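Anyone have tokens for Diacylglycerol O-acyltransferase? Sequence:
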Amino acid sequence: MHQLSPLDAQFLMIESPTTVGHVGSLVVVDPPTGDGDRWTVDTVRALIESRLHLVPIFRQRLAEVPFGLTRPYWVDDPYFDLEFHIRELAIPQPGSAAQLGEQVARLHARALDRQRPLWELYVITGLTDGRAAVYSKVHHAAIDGVSGAELLSTLLDIRPTPRQVEPEDERFDPRPLPSRRDLLGRGLASMLSDQAQIARTVPLALRHLDQLPGAGSHGVVRGISDAASLVARLTGAERRAQVSATSRDLKAPRTPLNGPITAHRRFSFGSVPLADIKTVRRRYGGTVNDIAMVLCTAALRRWLLDHDALPQTPLVAAVPVSVRRRGQEGSAANQISVMLAELPTHLADPEARLEATRASMELAKARFGAVPPTLLSDLSLLMPTAGSGLAARSLFNLATVPGPPFNLMISHVPGPQVPLYVAGARVEGVYPVSAVSDLTGALNITLFSYNGALDFGLIACRELVPDAWNLIGYLSDALAELVQVSQAG
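Reply: yep, here.
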């Protein structure tokens, strides 16, 4: 039994009729076809059942503290039913990628049942060429991108034959659900502990409050940060790190990506060769992630031109960053922050766009390094627990009043560069399925580097981005253009 962190709890609180708080992945596989081989939902269920003890959160559910005094706890689910969490469905012929994406979008739009462990997995058959897929979703309150990748590695293998896993020392015997009295007592103790942590960490965090995405545009926020800095100087506390004088507040333009979202989703996915990314990188420098951001910039430019909505200033992307420290591996709790970067979609020349994107990423990293990496976690302590769902959603809505703090989210989760297998089926691609909200924008682009490719997963609000599949084609076209320019030079 353990309590959610303040940041974990916020992912619960932001859920609404139009916003879900889970993240997922679509794993496309090529099942074995030898004589007598059968790859079904039972095959996958048996594999996961043998490894459940490696992922404790899979058998835990939420227990709310009475009156919402403080954050919920993860507790054993005494009614855990593996068959409820692992399901199967078939795509009708012809079993195209578009059909699969539509099915994933529908599944992803449904909220998880908070009376059960917060995850579901679907084995999907009927795809072209005999392929199949595994779509899974887990609540963001339980994992972040890095811990999600760690979880995935627990369930997958590097050889067709699943590795032998040491069984549980003892059969799973869930503890009874805690009583309201027990939860209330723990909650009161937690509140005292939180107050001590607030006194220790929040004064520093308040000095950096105006560095949160979009917060600098609010005069009240700037006033709080300036006042906290003044108090720190008067009391002899360390002055906050100064951001480079060359940096500036980033202002996101209004685009069709920014507006109230609906509950409906679109999902598209695809891959580009990592070798081509490296060809561009050798010519222009930078990191693989820098080149991926260049591709996203080019694709977004074409999409905005399609909609006659290209702004004359750069878009602003929020880029999640893992702040896990050594020794925190294997922790399911969220250890993330976010940095902002400009995407020069206003530039028509591909080389100029590439250079500007690289410079933007360098500046974003410098700005991010000037604030405490735990800023989001520390400030989450200030969010009230009773009624915090309303408070969190109101805060998100207020962030959009003077204009969107950013236009969309783009993230990159590094993965293994060797083939993986799930219950003997070779993994052809791992496509992330993230989340969108009124704050984050109607489009989220997440990529996973796997076995010589960058696998892109694009989740979007159906009404605001109905043509998400076009963006997948634009990403491939952008890379082909850069490769051609690189080789010509």
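Residues 239-247, 386-401 have pLDDT under 50 and may be disordered.
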